[in-house]
Amino acid sequence: QVQLVESGGGLVQAGDSLRLSCAVSGRTFSNLAMGWIRQGPGKERTFVAAISRSGDNTQYAEPVEGRFTISRDIAKNMVYLQMNNLKPEDTAVYYCAADQTHGIWYVPRLPDFTSWGQGTQVTVSS
Known about the structure:
The protein is mainly beta. The chain has strands at 3-7, 10-13, 18-25, 33-39, 45-51, 58-60, 68-73, 78-83, 92-99, 115-116, 120-125.
């Protein structure tokens, strides 16, 4: 079973940056495509970003395109989400998620994720 542990959330001001981290264990990391999903106050979970098993392919939600960057470190079994120029509408609980069922080049979408972390809160003040 995949275990995912997020860290790096916090309270920041608009325009600041944060880097979220996700420690992955329980499965061979190279067999997992990874992603970040967020859930704002009173809202459903929405896709933020994802990266293929190979690390070569990424996908971003339109609201974060150009501001957020997802990456993975195979040597450390870690996934990161670098968030720049944060906005109040980025306030949410951010979840790390894993997809175990697709090929090496595939970038997962929200329904593809089968394992989830506990989430880390990001709050952006205006």
